[in-house]
């Protein structure tokens, strides 16, 4: 802990003076983050570093398993963070980011690991759909492959939960929100993104458009145009 405290002092002495104009602007004008990123609390996964984001550029929500409880089941920290990001801050992109070697996903596959952690076990119930998908379609995988598949399927499940939140559903209907599903490979430093058209994850690359889980476009199910197309 002393080492971390020392870094606080280093920040105040060495870093803040160089970036004082940025912090002054943020303190005066407030924040206008470009995106909300919901990621795992794992200390090896740092959203600001992955995104190379400056202070004020990304709104972050972290928890074990990068979980988004369905709206009707939990009115807690994640729900409040999502609502604030969309309604108050006006973010246009929401990223749900899983990662390799995720302890929450290991526990999801091996629930006996949670014998002494009842609260974590209860929390991971929001990922049970991912485990059911895993059990039904990934029976022949090695333990390592199954762990990776669990993390990927969990991202898909949490994106589904995210769409149950009223602020998100309304933003999607207006065409103001783009949803992203990511997977960060700690070993390779690579980010895979969910392609909503194919249902597959593929690497984010410089020379290709970044795949999105759900692109921003108006989605009024009862619009005259939709009814006329029937």
Give me the strand/helix succession: HHEHEHEHHHHHEEEH
Count up the domains: 1
The structural class is alpha/beta
Taking the sheet with the most strands, its summary is:
6 strands, mixed
How large is the count of helical segments? 10
| Share of β-strand residues | 15-25%
Number of strands: 6
What is the topology?
Elements: H1 2-15, H2 20-29, E1 35-40, H3 47-50, E2 58-63, H4 77-88, E3 93-99, H5 103-109, H6 118-123, H7 128-137, H8 143-162, H9 166-173, E4 178-185, E5 190-195, E6 200-203, H10 224-228
Parallel strand pairs: 1-2, 1-3, 3-4
Antiparallel strand pairs: 4-5, 5-6
Features:
230 residues; alpha/beta; 10 helices; EC 4.2.1.1
Short summary of the structure?
The protein is of the alpha/beta class.
Overview of the structural elements:
Keywords: Lyase, Metal-binding, Zinc. Zn(2+) binds at residues 40, 42, 99, 102. Its cofactor is Zn(2+). Reversible hydration of carbon dioxide. There is one protein chain. With 230 residues, this protein is α/β, with parallel strands linked by helices. The protein has one domain: Carbonic anhydrase (Beta-carbonic Anhydrase, Chain A, 3-Layer(aba) Sandwich). It has helices at 2-15, 20-29, 47-50, 77-88, 103-109, 118-123, 128-137, 143-162, 166-173, 224-228, and strands at residues 35-40, 58-63, 93-99, 178-185, 190-195, 200-203. A hairpin with a 4-residue loop joins β5 (190-195) and β6. α7 (128-137) packs across α8 (143-162). The chain starts with a helix and ends with a helix. The mean pLDDT is 93.
């Amino acid at each position: 802990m002393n080492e971390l405290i020392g870094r606080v002092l280093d920040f105040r002495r060495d870093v803040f003076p160089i970036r004082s104009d940025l912090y002054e602007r943020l303190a005066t004008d407030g924040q206008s983050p470009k995106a909300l990123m919901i990621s795992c609390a794992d200390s090896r996964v740092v959203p600001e570093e992955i995104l190379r984001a400056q202070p004020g550029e990304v709104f972050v929500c972290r928890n074990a398993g990068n979980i988004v409880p369905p709206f009707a089941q939990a009115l807690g920290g994640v729900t409040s963070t999502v609502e604030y990001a969309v309604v108050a801050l006006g973010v246009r992109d929401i990223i749900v980011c899983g990662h390799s070697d995720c302890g929450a996903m290991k526990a999801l596959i091996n629930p006996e690991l949670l014998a002494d952690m009842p609260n974590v076990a209860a929390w991971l119930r929001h990922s049970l759909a991912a485990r059911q998908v895993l059990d039904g379609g990934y029976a022949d995988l090695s333990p390592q492959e199954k762990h990776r598949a669990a993390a990927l399927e969990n991202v898909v499940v949490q994106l589904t939960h995210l769409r149950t939140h009223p602020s998100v559903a309304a933003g999607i209907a207006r065409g103001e929100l783009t949803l992203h599903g990511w997977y960060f490979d700690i070993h390779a430093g690579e980010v895979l993104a969910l392609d909503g058209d194919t249902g597959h994850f593929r690497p984010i690359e410089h020379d290709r458009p970044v795949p999105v889980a759900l692109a921003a476009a108006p989605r009024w199910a009862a619009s005259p145009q939709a009814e006329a197309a029937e």
